[in-house]
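Suppose you are handed a protein chain with no further information: no name, no annotation, nothing but its sequence. What can you learn? This example shows the usual starting point.
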Amino acid sequence: MHLHILGICGTFMGGLALLARELGHRVTGSDANVYPPMSTQLEAAGIELSQGYAASHLQPAPDVVVVGNAMTRGVPAVEYMLDQGLPYVSGPQWLAEHLLGARHVLAVAGTHGKTTTASLLAWLLEDAGLEPGFLIGGVPGNFGLSARLGAGRYFVVEADEYDTAFFDKRSKFLHYRPRTLVINNLEFDHADIFDDLAAIQRQFHHLVRTVPGSGLIIHPQGVESIEQVLAMGCWTQRQSLALVEPEPTDAPAHPSTQPEADWRAELLNPAGAEVRLHRDGAVLGAWSWNQTGRHNVSNALAAIAAAAHVGVEPQAAMATLERFQGVRRRMELRGEVGGVRLYDDFAHHPTAIATTLDGLRKSVGQARILAVLEPRSNTMRAGVHAKTLAASLGEADLVYLFAPADLGWDAAAVMAPLGERVRVHEAIEPLVAEIIKTVQPGDHLLVMSNGGFQGIHQRLLDALQSCP
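A reasonable first move is to predict its three-dimensional structure. Written in structure tokens, the prediction is:
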């Protein structure tokens, strides 16, 4: 079968292309934005890429066109597909019909942490010998690719709430029918398709309805937005998660007003590099690893609980976590030049920005952190997070904001609470120049964007190499 994928370089669609290729199909694709790591994965797999969305890309006609959710009416390839009556399907539907039906699906949903949690979960299953398949919106370091079929019965999928396609406005995750579901967290996002948090919660309620009674739903304890979803109806066993910090020995006792969570991760140091695991009130052991931040500990706890549901012993899981190699573009160290460390991170929501910076701060202590942010997501560009953005950057010593002329809000006004710590630039060249002028040995440069950011990471590294 010949599949042509429209929007093939998106994280989901690129992974789908790799899976279809592994199944033996001929795969080609079109995209307007081609950049690593997805483009290099596709090229290495022998998948032919075409720039743009020309009707000619569908000539001769493929057996089916797989349509990414970035496609809209008016796109030449879409109009040609409809006029010619070519068979077409959404990516999530193709995945469900051709891959997921016979598998035990472990889905990771939520506003933040899906990619890291899914990567952790796939690695826990892999190290336990279960040979899982997976489709993840990033590249886990332990695998070096974002998707594979796997040889076992288990399939890990990053379950996105974004809509499916221009002809299917349901959330993608409604196609996946998981037996093990992780809901990491739930906040308002994707303002381009959802009017409010309640609209997102309704989609999560529909997801909960698809989990069988013999399955498992894993979620953090006491998160109101998630509890409201589950209160709409839940027919599945639940397990709760919590993060705790050890109380000082001389601290007065403060009894909790809610029952103890089923799974608890106890931070043994502020950066979250050492963690003790509890289940049902009993200590199971501890692990240490090279990840930082409370958010990553939460991700790991959810992955341990999900892996346990399919038979991975928590003690074995903790040992496996110590060999987790992280995920590309999630606090990925891109290079160190002249004592300056440069990280690439996907954070694009104030909560994710704040937790990422908090983890880095607790790891580096008093060393300077220079945060470089591109507000690229539709929600961010629309100014939905304008009221909380400056506060989310509070741990940074200096903040550099890329604010092109077509940004939908007044960047200087929004960032004013940061005072003299912030610099706003409309173009990449002066932004890079000012960073290079300011940066010092021992600094940590944290670049945050959910896109390519015009290659700023390599531009900065190259400029640092050229410094006297």
